[in-house]
Write a structure and sequence with these properties.
Length: 304
């Protein structure tokens, strides 16, 4: 297909997004030794594993089917979203009805599917692993390193743009100039408040070469024509198949949009932000809030 060929919108306006993909095959080396024997996605952010917040966001937005891309040693993710008959029976026998309800709800949140990424070849390759699951439908992608605390859910904000334009949508937020080297950065053309047409994308540019400070923050609505491009995309930065590189090619064929997300983002890809996220969600618990605040004041007083 010629590089400048335009692709018509999928079928007709009003195509709904009902499938989501969550890449979760990374080794989590930044959290060693905590992740030596457990996936980083299963590290608890207060009282839930990190990945459950992401799944709950998808469910709240009306997603019905979720594929999690896993890797070697990630069985605990599958186990978490499966039924645990022994645990349920133990809770029932001991009259722990509240805990039993919580456990059962986890396994009935949504239709869950799993596939392994057999080689660590990057985010683009992880998304490509979802080709058979996605088929010919548009789909959402969630990165588990970003927990979004927002109303409406972050992915719903992207879905509103999809509904209006029927084209790929990237979730973006403004990032400090000195941190552009940690993000995919877009060159935007403003279309309205918080809505942009993506003119270009650059993977992890140096601050003096970044086309803007709008970084892609782990939420996407994508179209299945991306898979053909991913299959032909060569390894780029870091020796990995970069999703950003494939999106640059897709942009030449169809409009790509960006939505400035409203809400609070918890980047749990590093230890400090992980602790901040845990505190933020702990303070939402009315039973724990007063005690945690009091303890925090004690710690500050000791440091002074």
């Amino acid at each position: 297909m010629p590089r400048n060929t335009r692709i018509k919108p999928l079928r007709s306006r009003g195509v709904r997004v009902t499938k989501a993909v969550i890449p979760a095959a990374g080794l989590g080396t930044r959290f060693l030794p905590a992740t030596k024997a457990q996936p980083k996605e299963m590290l608890p952010v207060y009282d839930k594993p990190a990945i459950q917040y992401v799944v709950e966001e998808a469910v709240a937005a009306g997603i019905r089917d979720i594929l999690i891309i896993t890797g070697r040693g990630k069985q605990s993710i599958e186990n978490h979203f499966d039924r645990s008959w022994e645990l349920e029976e133990n809770l029932r026998a001991h009259g722990k009805s509240r805990d039993l309800k919580i456990v059962r709800e986890i396994s009935s949140l949504v239709n869950m599917y799993f596939v392994r990424q057999k080689e660590a070849l990057g985010l683009g390759h992880a998304v490509l692993c979802a080709k058979s699951f996605v088929g010919s439908e548009p789909f959402a992608v969630f990165l588990g390193d970003d927990i979004m605390d927002s109303r409406p859910p972050a992915i719903s904000q992207l879905l509103d743009v999809w509904d209006a334009h029927q084209g790929p949508v990237l979730g973006v937020m403004e990032v400090p100039r000195e941190l552009t080297r940690a993000y995919g950065i877009i060159r935007p053309k403003e279309m309205g408040e918080g809505l942009f047409r993506v003119e270009d994308l650059v993977e992890k540019p140096e601050p003096d070469k970044a086309p803007s400070q709008l970084g892609i923050v782990g939420r996407y609505i994508l179209t299945p024509d991306l898979f053909e491009i991913l299959e032909k995309t060569r390894a780029g930065r870091g020796g990995e198949i970069q999703l950003t590189d494939a999106l640059r090619i897709l942009k030449r064929r169809r409009p790509i949009y960006a939505c400035a997300l409203k809400g609070h983002r918890h980047d749990i890809g590093n230890k400090v932000e992980f602790v901040k996220a845990t505190l933020a969600y702990a303070l939402k618990d009315p039973e724990a809030r007063a005690s945690i605040l009091a303890y925090a004041r004690e710690l500050v007083a000791e440091q002074d």
